[in-house]
Amino acid sequence: MKALVAGLAGCLACCTGFMPAWAQAPSGPASASPERGRALLMERQDTGCILCHQIPGLPVGGALGPSLHGLAQRSTPAQARERIADARRFNPNTLMPAYLSVEGLHNVAARYRGQTVLTPLAVDDIVSYLFQPDTTAP
Ligand code: HEC
What we know:
binds heme C, mainly alpha, 7 helices, Cytochrome Bc1 Complex, Chain D, domain 2, 41% helix
């Protein structure tokens, strides 16, 4: 029995090794991680946040969108979460991609159709990074 349990644990460890950081469910109830959030914000391909935003604690950043410095002073985690989920709710003509919606998208490559860019947990990870105390200091 012990061997079987150990074998299963080894198998789980090996499977999760092939998943991108954002897809790995933490053990136990899903909880947001600012470390995963930071990694996601840095991803040029998977999120692109730094292509458009200056972000506290990250070395480089673009200027197509506003700087996210001081975000905690002008918005709440819930507002940021909604914005990341689908910025079109605030500005129908926004440049910012909708990370948790598949509504109204055009020319989506066949293999991505019906999939959101991020998972709800990944968005929570990002929000937890953006609103952690040492990130929000001016
Ligand atoms: C293609 C450019 C682009 C990308 C990529 C992008 N954004 Fe944005 N973002 C914008 C723009 C432009 C705005 C300003 C509001 C608007 O026009 O919709 C904005 C606004 C925001 C705001 C509100 C800022 C404030 O001052 O209140 C947050 C938070 C935000 N973005 C987070 C993110 C995160 C997190 C990501 C990555 C998951 C991301 N954005 C990716 C362009 C972008």
